[in-house]
Amino acid sequence: MKYAGSILAALVVFISSHLAAADDQPDEKSAATPDRETLIKQFEKSMSGATLVGFFTVNGQEAKNGLKEEKYHLKSVKKLKHGDFWQFEYQYGQAGKTISLPLEVKWAGDTPVITLTDVLVPGAGKFTARVLFYRNEYAGTWSASDHGGRLFGKVVPPGDDDTGWVPLFDGKSLAGWHKNPDKIGHGTGGSWTVEDGAIVGQQDPPGSGNGGILLTDRKFGDFELSIDMKPDWGVDSGLFLRSNDKGECFQMMVDYHEAGDVGHIYGEGTGGFNNRPFGLVGILDDQHKLVRISTGPVKDATPEGYSASGDEWVKAWKIGEWNTARVTCVGQPPKITTWLNGVKISEFDGQTFAGPNYDKEKVAAQLGAEGSIAVQVHGGKGWPVGAACRWKNIKVRPLK
User: Fold this and answer.
1) pTM confidence score
2) In Å, how far from its chain's centre is CA 84?
3) Which domains does the chain have, with CATH numbers?
């Protein structure tokens, strides 16, 4: 139902911004309604960067199809010079396609109303709609040539703080994330839940070999990422950068197992190249519990480029605790730098990397300049039964 989704994205966009501004509704006795210029400035500021989460129905199909969630990220919202038109630039759906559309916003006092009459939405057709936004909710109707329905939802305000960081995980739900929509080499998606404020990834069902990835709906190009992780020993996970829904990406390895690696870069579905200079060696006690980690050499020679030593890695990593990874990804192809608990682990330069199986032109064309951030549950029988990888405190800072 992308036709309704496209209109919803645009419509929801308008209303959301006002909601953030209208949240602090002044008391009638204490303050007057802001003037139009002030409302416009508030709308522009609160809408840009917001995420809209809503639902739509199709008349006569409610029982059959139910409600389908739609999410949209508003990249930019600006008032145009003439009339009541605003330019909305937004991403909608899992494909993250960017749409730029001028839409008319009417005002009922301090409340915005999206007013569309036979407006052509790129890739979807003409739509008519009237949508009212109040506080953090919206509701309205939409129609096309021979069908229509209702729409409603909530506005999630932009999460940027004063330093530009945007939270990607609310600690309560998987809002803003999706599993791989089609089966990939690792499986149909894996199991993803939220427990104790963390995203928990496991095979589905445990021990079945069925894994997959969990991706952000929003796409990123140049960015800095901070994420806390706590993998069980033996799991083969990963942090995907500029990923598509097939799981093709630059991966920061989280291969927390014998001969594995955490913190270096691997070409997932893009050639299998890597820049790791050592592998992990686990020391277990009599109950097969991990008590210590050392490192050992890898078979293949590592191309030139910065890497922490094995000893530096061992000192940085905290066994059985939460570890914080920081990543910067800049350029096309990108230069990717990783840190663990403040210690720089790796520098991968996509412009100059000379390792085997790497073709920078091919990879750049395959992945493009933007992609999702994702976390992985590896498919296959190597993942221990009942083991999990956990993630929390996930935030990103877009770099321009």
Assistant:
1) 0.64
2) 32
3) 2-156 (2.40.128), 166-398 (2.60.120.560)
